Amino acid sequence: MNIVLIGAGNLATNLGKALKYAGHSIEQVYSHTMASAEQLASILGCSATNDLQQLFEVEVYIISIKDAVLQSVVSTACKQHPNAVFLHTAGSMPMEIFKGEAQHYGVLYPMQTFSKAREVDFSIIPTFIEWNDEQARQTICSLAESVSNRVYPLSSADRKYLHLSAVWACNFANHCYDVASVLLKAHHLPFDVMLPLIDETARKVHELSPREAQTGPAVRYDENVIHAQAELLKNNPNLQELYLQLSKSIHEIRK
């Protein structure tokens, strides 16, 4: 298919590479800054623009930008190309954001954490899709199945909870790594001492449920350890409260 990518961030970069590898033609990259558009366009071998009024005429427009500006971009881009299929890649935004703006539209949401500098195997990424009509269904299914072996239809209502779950499993977990890194650095310890522990924690949930895999003082609510560790965080009340609330949650769920 002939595609225009609207966005040049982490997800757009990885999706653009995967689509090109699958044989699609990325004709143009849009970003609100020309430098970002040109950077991704040079990787994909296509044109770049920072003007939504200058988008090429193609079969599919994939919008992969910040949620806060999605509506304004949709309103501007869709009306110029009424016969095309428009889709967005956001986990928490409803498909209906296109209603009244485009005729054929939907969602292609690859559930993964992306960084521009890291290559990913897109074929194993669970990819969730939604559409408003048959033309959109055929287009989005074809696109998704060309890059991923794990494609699932999912409504906007359910996708909100999928995205929320991903925030817990990825973003919040990574924040905990960051907290651990700061504590270690303050006491002249390298973060890489945590890597075997992090790796084994992730491996365990391939075989056990997260609840079965849970260990630590909060499971049995060892108050001596919990209070002693909370005391170590007394200079950071927010972090201390977070530690106590997470410990309480672990114990209550385990009970």
Structure description:
The protein is elongated, with a radius of gyration of 22 Å. Strands 3-2-1-4-5-6-7-8 form an eight-stranded mixed beta sheet, with helices on both faces. The mean pLDDT is 96. It starts with a strand and ends with a helix. The chain has nine helices and eight strands. It is an alpha/beta fold and 255 residues long. Helices cover 48% and strands 15% of the residues. Helix 2 links the parallel strand 2 (25-30) and strand 3.
Number of helices: 9
Rg, Å, rounded: 22 Å
Which range does the strand content fall in? Answer: 5-15%
The dominant shape is elongated
Task: Return the structural class.
Answer: alpha/beta
* Percent range of helical residues: 40-55%
Query: What is the arithmetic mean of pLDDT?
Result: 96
In order across it, which strands form the biggest sheet? Answer: 3-2-1-4-5-6-7-8
State the major sheet: 8 strands, mixed
Secondary-structure map with pairings?
Layout: E1 2-6, H1 10-21, E2 25-30, H2 34-44, E3 47-49, E4 60-63, H3 67-78, E5 85-88, E6 104-110, E7 127-131, H4 134-147, E8 151-153, H5 156-186, H6 195-204, H7 210-213, H8 223-232, H9 237-254
Parallel strand pairs: 1-2, 1-4, 2-3, 4-5, 5-6, 7-8
Antiparallel strand pairs: 6-7
Task: Provide a compact summary of the structure.
The chain has helices at 10-21, 34-44, 67-78, 134-147, 156-186, 195-204, 210-213, 223-232, 237-254, and strands spanning 2-6, 25-30, 47-49, 60-63, 85-88, 104-110, 127-131, 151-153.
